[in-house]
Amino acid sequence: MSTIAELLLARADDDRTAFLHETGRWSFRELVHEGAKRAALFEEVRDPDQPPHIGVLLDNTPDYMFWLTGAALAGAVVVGINSTYRGEPLKQLIEHTDCQVLVTATPHLDLLDGIESPIASDRTLLVDTAEHAERLAVAAPFKGPSSPVTPDDLYLLIFTSGSTGMPKAVRCTQGRMARSGAHVANITEQRDGDAVYAPLPLFHTASLFTGWASTLNAGTAFATRTRFSASRAVSDIRQHNATVLAYTGKVLNYILAVPERPDDSDVPLRLAIGNEASEHDIKEFTRRFGCGVRDSYGSTEGVIIIRRDATMPAGSLGLASDSVKVLDPDTGSECPRAERDEQGRVVNLEAATGEIVETQPTSGFEGYYKNEAAARERFRGGAYWSGDLAYRDADGWFFFAGRSNEWLRVDGENFAAAPVEAIIGRHADVRSVAVYAVPDEIGDRVMVALELRDGTHLDPLGFDEWLRGQPDLGTKWLPSFVRVDAELPKLSSMKLDKRRLRREAWTVDGVLWRPSRKDDLRPLDASDRERLAPLLP
User: Fold this and answer.
1) Closest to 476 in 3D by CA, of 422, 516, 433
2) What DSSP letter does each residue of 44-55 carry, written as one string?
3) Judging by beta carbons within 10 Å of its beta carbon (0-12, 13-18, 19+), is residue 497 exposed, middle or buried?
C-alpha cells in the first residue's frame, strides 16, 4: 500500500485489534469508522480555499488517533502541536503551519492564555465537550476526499525538538509514512498478535513511524497511554501483551529507574527499537527484560542512519554507509580520523570532529514547511548536513560529539560536549548528564547538570576526586559548575532541554562551582552570584 489512506481503507472490515489504550480497545474496523466521522466533520467546517491543516493539541488520547485516521482518509494534514509551548510561541507555531482547525481539549486552553487565538472559535474543536460529540453525531457521512489521496500528498508536519531554538516543521507525505512503516514492520518482524507500545507523544516520530505506521502495515496493534509514565510502562506492556517497544531519548533510562522486580524478564517484550539510549541503558534493559534492543542514530528529517553493531568499541554510534562522512563545515573536506593516546584520550579531537554528512542523499527528507532557508542550510553542495557533530576512528566507527551548537571554547581550546558527557556518565551514581557552555569573561566555562540514581547523593569532594582521576578527561574539560537536580528539564521527546539549562546557567539553587581550575568544588553563595551576574546576558 502506497498511502496511509490505502492502508486504513484496506482494513475497514478487519476486526483484529488496532489500538490499545488505558481507556479501551478498538479494532481496525472501529478505528476507520471513528476516523471517517472526524473526516466528515472536517469537511463540514473547513475552508476549501485554505490549506487543509488540522492542528492537534492533545495528549495521547483516543481522539488523537481518531483525528490522525480522519485526516489520512480526508487527504488533510495533521500538525502535531507540542504542549510544552504556550502563549506567543504556541501562537507562532499554529500560524506558521497555517492551521485552520484546532483540535484540543479544555485543559489545554490555558496554554493560549494571554494571546488572541489564531483559530476561530467555531473551528476550535474541544474533544472533551458534549458539543463536540453532538457535532460528530450530526455530521453528514463521509463520502471520501474531493480528490484521490496520493503518495505525494502532505500528511504530517512534525516539529523538530526545538533544543536549539524555535522548532522547524518537517514535511511528511502519505507515501513517506507508509514506506517508513513498512520498513519498521519488516525489521521488527511483526506478526499476527503482536503489539507495539509507544509511550511518547503522538507528534513524535517514534510513536508515528516506529509505532503506528508499522502496525498499520503489519496488521498488528498499536498501544500507548495518555502520558508517558515510567512507573506504569512495564504494567502497560504486560496488559497490552506488547512485544515491541518504540522509544527515543531517555525512555529506557526512566523505565530502568523503576525498582526491579523478580518477574521483569517475563514481560512479553522481544525488542525495543529506537535511538539515543546510552550504552549502559541498552545493556541493562537487555539484561533486565530479556529482550533485544535495536538502537540507531537518526533524526526527524530521516536522511542518515548509523546502526550499532555487536563488535563496535565502547561509546561508538556504530557504522553507516560509505557515503556518510564527517566533514569540516568550513572547508567541506573530510576530517582526519581520531588518534588516541595511552589513556584512550583523543589527541586531535578538534581536527577530527566535524559534521555528520550524507554526501549522496537519495530519500527521506521532504523539506521544511515554509522554511526554504533552513532547507538550504541542510542541503549544501548536493550533500545533506545533519547539524550533528562526530568523529571517526581508524576503523570507521562513528562517535557522537554533540550538536553543532554544542562546541565549548575554554582557554582557547575548542571541544564538543558529548565526549565529556560520556566520561561523566561512567560515574556509578549518575543517571543522566548534560554538559554545556556557560559564559566566562573570555570564552566559556564548562557546566554539568546531573540527575542521580535513586538513593544516592553527590559528595562534592568525592566527585571532584573522581573527576580528576579520569585519565581521558581533558585538562580543559573539568567542570567549573555542577548542578544536581532530582529531575533535569526535558523536552517532550524525553531529550534533555539544554536550551533551558544554558539559559538558567548557575541561577538555580544547589549549584556547586570552582572559582579556578585548581580550586575544589564548593556551594555557590550569594556573593558568588553577584560576582558572576555580569557574565549572563
Assistant:
1) 516
2) HH--TTS--EEE
3) buried
Residue-wise burial string across 310-320, b where 16 or more C-beta atoms lie within 10 A, e elsewhere: eebeebbbbbb
Q: Is 411 left (phi over 0), alpha (psi -120 to 50) or beta?
A: left
Q: What is the dihedral of CA 379, 383, 389, 393, to 10 degrees?
A: 180
Residue 195 CA, distance from chain mean position: 21
Compute CA distances 101 → 56, 166, 313, 403, whole Å. Answer: 8, 22, 50, 35
Which pairs from 432-437 meet CB under 8 Å and 24+ separation?
432/250, 432/253, 432/488, 432/496, 434/488, 434/496, 434/498, 434/501, 435/408, 435/479, 436/406, 436/408, 436/498, 436/501, 436/502, 437/406, 437/407, 437/408, 437/409, 437/502
382-397 per-position pLDDT tens digit: 899 988 889 999 999 9
Q: Which residue has the cell 487565538?
A: 117
Q: How many CA atoms lie within 13 A of 227 on its CB side?
A: 6
User: Global pTM?
Assistant: 0.80
How far from chain centre, in Å, is Cα 431?
Answer: 18
Number of helical (H) and strand (E) elements in the chain, helices listed first: 17, 26
What is the per-residue pLDDT for 418? 84
Q: What is the pLDDT of residue 34?
A: 97
Grid look-up 507523544 returns 201
3-state helix, strand, coil in the chain (%, to 5): 30, 25, 45
- pLDDT at residue 49 greater than cutoff 70: yes
The answer to whether 172 and 157 are in contact (CB under 8 A) is: yes
Burial of 88 (0-12, 13-18, 19+ CB in 10 A): exposed
Q: What is the pLDDT of residue 162?
A: 52
Tell me if 12 sits within 8 A of 28, measured CB to CB. Answer: yes
Give the start-end residues of each E strand in 94-216. Answer: 101-104, 124-126, 154-159, 169-173, 195-197
**27 phi and psi angles, rounded to 5 deg:** -80, 170
